[in-house]
Amino acid sequence: MINPHVFREYDVRGFVNKDLNEDFVFNLGRAIGTYAVKNRIKNMTIGRDCRLSSEAYQNFLIKGLNSAGINTIEIGLCATPILYFSIRHLHVGGGVMVTGSHNPPNFNGFKICIGHSTIYGKQIQELRKIMESGRYTRGASSAKQKDISKDYENYLFRKIKIKRKIKAVVDAGNGVGGLFALPLLKRYGCEIFPINCEPDGNFPNHSPDPTVEENLIELIKLVRKNKADLGIAFDGDADRLVAINDKGEIIWGDKLLLLFARQVLKKNPRSSIIGEVKCSQLLFDDIRNHSGNAIMWKAGHSLIKAKMKREKAVLGGEMSGHFFFADRYFGYDDGIYAALRLLEILSETGKKLSELLADVPKTFSTPEIRVDCTDDKKIQIVNRIKKHFQNTPGIVEIDGIRIPFANGWALVRSSNTQPVIVLRFEANSEKNLQLIRDEVEPLLEI
Q1: pTM here?
Q2: Opening angle at CA 85, ends 84 and 90, nearest 5
Q3: Cα distances (angstroms) measured from residue 85 to each of 205, 329, 423
Q4: Would residue 101 show up in a list of annotated catalytic residues for this protein?
């Protein structure tokens, strides 16, 4: 039996050896291949992260794709943005990344590209329908291997200029980011203090999720100890970035997006920039104050990228640290590229990271709060809270519900990647932040 919940909003993801096993992954490869053939695709690249199950899953997936008539090029151990890069660099019709991203070691998953775009929503469900039907295409195919990591490094090095020596602490969370970010940073002449940069699918030091504050404790200590310009944290597959400023303070995704937006809008005034529903209201206000068109949208890398194409946006980002640069880049989420853009801003301005955000009004907010909840129940709870606030003026329901209050806002949404409900709150004072939380959190009743 196939667990339908592994077919999520913008990827396929589940528990190792429970939802995902040899037969499932092989048949998923056949389904992806069948879907690709229907879209007149013959060639695809395949990459994997460092999870203990990823190499085996990659091999089963390739067999399934080959069975369906798809020629495969295995690029091996890589970051998810390198898989995206490979599709463009090798001029193939799509690709699949085997990765559990930021999730615990017992998870794994698949990010699937048809053309240059990651598929999502109904397209993901189409794969489920093909697997349930058992009707797969068959055809002759080939399987090759190619390492393009140096091509990726050279491309980024040519695109970004860092003109002064920057001191940085880098925490890759024992994912793949360190393998590819460290050589680039050293090539720029940066002074680097690496921690947890050896790939290890057990993730022995902390979970590969930089949006969890406790995972940043060691990074913060070392930034302060070494008097570094900043700290850089990647998630497991290096498509996300969180930064620590020179004072040891966490710079969450929405504040980083604000900095990137300011840089982009200097040369591209009146451009559209997209932030997702978890982002601070300060972000949207600041974009407008710098002559930009601020757009709020759903969370999820595939959803943001699709919205960017529709709106012809030059930049997009998420609270979770996904950043999408269509300005001077391909428009997909790349934590390594985003880190280089941040260093470029420091290099160009000559300012400290803390100084660059000094003029942003102070608010009080929570990080993402994740409340464990089954996949079935989380949707029911979010719908119940929507009904409770349905008559509140100014509510936003593009992804869960974002509720405006006189002195702040609250967000309640169901996660697309884990069995949790995601909350976030922001207010103009600690007292008002607590008042908003006290009004919303009891409504969960899990």
Answers
A1: 0.93
A2: 110
A3: 29, 10, 33
A4: yes
